[in-house]
Amino acid sequence: MKSFLLTILLLILFISHSNADHSIKINELDSLETKLIGSSGREKLEVLLDLCECLVEKDSKKCILYSRQALDLARKLKQPNLEIKALIYLGREHSNLGNYFEGLQNFKKAQKIAIENKLDHSLVDAWNEIGITYFHIGNYKEAQTYYFKALEKAELIKYKEREIGLQNNIAIIYSIYKNHDKALELFTKLLNIYEVENDSIQIALTSVNISNIYDELGKYEEGLEYLNKAIPIFISSGNKLKLSSTLNNRGNIYSKVGQLDKALTDYWDALKIAEKNNFESGIISSSINLGQYYILNKKHEKAIDFFENALKISLENHDKARVMECYEGLANAYELSGNYKMALSNTRLYLSYKDEIYNEQTQKQISEIQIKYETEKKENEIEFLQDRIKTQKRNLLIILGGLLVISVLILRVLKLKQSNLERKNLLLEQEKQMDQLALQKMEAETREKEQENLRLNEEMMANEEINRLKQLKYKTELKHKERELAANALHMVSKNETLNSFKKLAEDALLAQNTEVKKALRKLIQEIESNIHLDQDWDKFKMHFEEVHQGFFKSLLDRHTDLNTNELRFCAYLRLNLDAKEIARILNISVNAIEKRRYRLRKKLSLESTDSLFEYINRF
């Protein structure tokens, strides 16, 4: 069972990356990066994609950087097939980093482009990547759906390379669901294809997969038959790692059918190969298997030696699952040899690691469920938003004519306001020039005085005149800014009146029979009402107000710390000597409500009935 799960895991990794060779050759990578510097256009795009192929799952930072550059360049050059390729590299890297939602979004963008441009091969690639991503987050149902879609399309367009990979993927899903008959059917079909193509390595790997399924089913003779087919291929190809692993698998089956001598031979051969090639995982597996063998043959001391050897390497590699197996084997060996103290000690260690692994697996399952939930939630949100956008576009088309007229009116009003502002700026500039000319004239008259004392007196008088003019100018500017504040307030009135007018027109239009128009107009009314009370105008008004009446709000708050924003705004309007009607129009409320606010403010300011609220506010 353990060897079967290990093989399935190895197969998943293989199919996920079967579309590219990810072994980075340093010289090749340096050559590509050098070539990138002097390239442009389509050539540069192809170099970027070659770099992505070299770096995916090896250097996440660089791979994401190059794939994004390739994506931008492919869009600029209008190369949808290469744009899809860049999106797939980008999606793979996000998925490899655990960002499954971002990976799915990139793959689905690639899917959309492939459909729009009728790029069937690219569509199959995109569906395959979506299926693999769903597989990694544990959503096997969705993964299977996309695998079948991709396989059907691949068979239709004769995309042989992808057909084989997809059949592998689907066989894995069947294996997970314990549908051994379907899994065997697909693996057998693949084996026939590899035999026709004379692909010896794939023949061996697929034979091991078939053997493991027969092992799970308890059909050991069939399992041995396929392992005996795989082992000579691994020997001839020089693949020592897979040879060692497969020998261990065959030894386990020999042990199950009672052929212990053959099992011992395979275990020893697997151990020698692993030790010679420094395959630590192979050494651990072979040592554990030999330990179990010697327990069965009641050679407990030998069994303990092998378990201790496997334990040492497992601890160095922080392989908790193997450490747990070693402690379990040691506990059994010590118990059978009569050393109950050591048996108890190793049993406790075994149980401790078992609990720790169980907790980690539970936490991992919880994390996978959380990732699956978050991914599905985000996808549903995006789907909902897309539907909402479509509805909004349809409604916008209905009210487009009305909005166009309103837009023209608003633009005209804005143009008039801009013209008025330009005229005001021109007047201010002229006043500034006149002030400068007056100052120059006084300085010239002062220099013409012949007598020193008279000159000093004239300078003093000139300085006094300058100060007086500055004060006059300051008062003039103050009055001008007060006029601007009043104009700003009236602008808010005009804005609110305009919005209310639009609201009234929309409400009248609601009497029409068109349901869609009614729905759109209600939304327009809500937008108008929300905009009537925006605080943006108040912030601008407050800024200008502080320029004219510096320290007003600070002084007021120092004296009355419990005043809120609305009360401060009301005090500012009173300081400008605006009457109740003007304030009511600015705030879009009734005059009666203004009187109530005035009453509450007087009470909060602790004013007597004989005190003037306006005079009190003017003190700050």
UniProtKB/TrEMBL annotation:
This is Tetratricopeptide repeat protein. Residues 1-20 form the signal peptide. It holds the Pfam family TPR_12. Residues 359-467 form a coiled coil. The keyword Signal applies. GO terms for biological process: regulation of DNA-templated transcription. One of its GO terms (molecular function) is DNA binding. TPR repeats lie at residues 124-157, 244-277, 284-317. It comes from Marinifilum flexuosum. InterPro entries: Sig_transdc_resp-reg_C-effctor, TPR-like_helical_dom_sf, TPR_rpt, WH-like_DNA-bd_sf. Keywords: Coiled coil, Membrane, Repeat, Signal, TPR repeat, Transmembrane, Transmembrane helix. The chain crosses the membrane at residues 396-414. SMART domains: TPR (SM00028).
